[in-house]
Amino acid sequence: xxxLTSSRVSxxxxxxxxxxxxxxxxxxxxxxxxxxxxxxxxxxKTIAASSNHQGKVLANSELRLKQSAIASQTQVQLxxxxxxxxxxxxxxxxxxxxxxxxxxxDQQQVMQNVQQIITxxxxxxxxxxxQQCTQVLEANNKQVLVQSLTIACxxxxxxxxxxxxxxxxRQGKIRxxxxxxxxxxxxxxxxxxxxVQISTETVGITDGSCNAIIAQFEKAxxxxxxxxxxxxDRKFTGGICKLSASQEFARNGVAPKQADSDKTAKSTKANxxxxxxxxxxxxxxxxx
Length: 288
Description:
Elements: E1 7-13, E2 16-17, E3 22-23, H1 38-50, E4 56-57, H2 60-78, H3 85-99, E5 103-104, H4 107-119, H5 123-159, E6 164-170, E7 173-179, E8 185-191, E9 197-203, H6 210-223, E10 228-236, H7 244-251, E11 266-270, H8 281-287
Parallel strand pairs: 1-11
Antiparallel strand pairs: 1-10, 2-4, 3-5, 6-7, 7-8, 8-9, 9-11
Helix pairs in contact: 1-3, 2-3, 3-5, 4-5, 5-6
């Protein structure tokens, strides 16, 4: 009889290509800059031409740092155009929107916010609308991030041999529950309340393979574009389910045939970012 074993892996993730949504640069051609001076329009064209979105979706905390740097760079760049104070503020806002790297789920919503900034008549209006626009951009980016991480977890579960997949939204956390043909499960929770975090653990493993399964799942996540920063931290959890999703799954009657040798393993990642590339394996599995 084997003893209970389980483990947890944690690590910060830097990010990779977007799998759902579009980049904020996609709104460029649809905006109207009527009322801008010739100098302001020239500045907008220069910013649009220099936009170099790399197809990544980053956590909002990372984007805030990037946005601050872009705003500073733009202020220096705009000094050569001799813009009025309000025009410079509008163009600076435009630059941060298209160059920061926000992923957009609802283009129309973002366009409306940016267009309101372009047509605002006072500096006070621009500053107020800038704050609103940032909130909209971060909400869109968060939505894309969660959707992309969900897809990554689904595909990684499939690659690890757990093909019966259900997805739930419970109290702001996304659960990806994947079972194999024996009823064993790989349960993931995606939490973006503070740092973006994926936590995954096995349920019902009786052959001592929990650590190997977690390692395979981690590798599959990397193949899906989820990239950690630094060395992962793995800890034993004593064979007891730690995630609320796993505990609920086990309480609902899913348990190993040999309960005394049940094993669980847990992996955790923070500040997760995700790929543009999306495999079709999830849809294929659902069709069977």
